[in-house]
What we know:
The protein is mainly alpha-helical. Helices cover 77% and strands 0% of the residues.
Amino acid sequence: MLDLKRFDKKTLTIIKWITLVVMAGLGQFVGGAFGDTLLITILIGLFTSPKFNLKYLLPWGLGLAFLASGLPTLVMLAGIIGVIAGQQILFKKRRSGQAKLSGAAVKRLEKADFSALTKRDVAVFNEVYSETDAQLTDIKRWLGKTKGLIKLNEETQLMYYADAVMQEMAKEPADLMRANDFVYKTVPTLHELLASYLEIAQHEIISDAQKEELRNARAVIRDLAVKVQAAYLAVTEDDVASLRDKVSVAKRTMEDTL
C-alpha cells in the first residue's frame, strides 16, 4: 500500500513531474486518441496538487486513454481494469481505521462519544488512533525483548502511561488535539528507535561501541517516556481542573456552614 503521507511536499512534487514527463513521452510515442487523452490529462495535472495527481488524475487519465485507444475490446478492457485495480491496491484506504485496531482498542472505542466531532474529524481520529495503536502494540512487544528494555519499562512505566493516554483519547476523542505530540511525534519516534535498537541488541556479538550506542538509545527512550507522561497530564487536564474546582467549592461551603 502506497502511503503518500510519508512523502514530504518536495518529494511528491518531484514524483509528480517525473510521472508527467513519462506520460508525455508515452503520449507522443503512441499518438492518436490515446496520446491526446494523456496530453489533456497532463495539462490538467500541471495545475493540480501532487497528491491529487498521483492518487486520482493520473490513474483515471490512463483509464480514459485506454478507452480512447481504439485497441481491440479485450485489450482495452484489460488495460482499464488493470489501471483501476492498480489504483485501488496502491491507494486502498483503511476503513474507519478499524482494520489495524487491537482487541483492547476496539473495546475502548465502543463507548467513545463522537457527538462533538464532524464526520471528517471522526475519520481523522480513527485513522490516527488505529495507527498509534498499531505502533504501541509493536512497542509493547519490543519492550519485552531484552532485560534492559524490560527494566526500563518497569522503571518509567512507559506502557502504563501510553495505555492510559489511549484510554483517555477513546473516552474523549476531542482530546486528540491535546495529544498531538504524543501521536505524531513521541510514539512514531519511539517506534522507530526501538526497531533500530533491537536490530543491534539481537546480534550474536555486540561490540563495545555498539553497547555504548544502546546505552545512549535507552537514555533517549527514558526521555520519551517522560513525554508520554506529559501527554497523559495534558489529556487529563480537564479532569484535574474539574476536581480542583469541586474541592474549592466544597471548602467554601464548609466555611460558610461554620
